[in-house]
Fold this sequence. Notes:
Blueprint: E1 4-5, E2 8-9, H1 10-34, H2 43-69, H3 84-95, H4 99-118, H5 132-149, H6 162-183
Antiparallel strand pairs: 1-2
Helix pairs in contact: 1-2, 1-5, 1-6, 2-4, 2-5, 3-5
Amino acid sequence: MTIVQNGISRQDRVRRVVILCASFARNLAYQRAMVPFRARLNQSDHEFWMTVSNNSLDVAVLEWCKLMADRNDKHHWSHVVTDAAAFEGSLLTAIGMTKDEFAGYETAMRRYRDKFIAHLDSDAEMDIPQLEQAERAVAFYHSHVVEQEAEGIDLHGLPATGAQMATYYHAEERSAAIRYDAAMQPVAG
């Protein structure tokens, strides 16, 4: 029997969580791969490449908020994991944060999303959150979902283990770096 909640089956919800985790990882990889190339940007291409890099950052933040910060989102961990209390404690241990620290981090991520991605509010300074904690949180959530929640769910074509997710991230980062490098080579002429 398939259980449907809010118009989506548990199987589809779990699969979509894995898709969101992969999207977060891919966009984080694209953004980080650009960092070493920033010094090579010429004036005519600067705006384009910075937009590409910043858009990747923004999508990573959006995906993270769906998974970790928006308790009303159907993909938030509290709506997906079987034992939310145990998951939360293990998550905090895995990322090395207290509950209060994580709540502050969630607030910072939501603030960046709300004030600079979704709306351009009147704040004078943009406070871009560091994404190391976000990366660890998504890696933990992904590993938990594929190991504990995804039994019998088709994850074909998706990273189905923590190791596969790490491999996926590094492959996307390498691929982006190769493409950035090729695009920024001087044109022979």
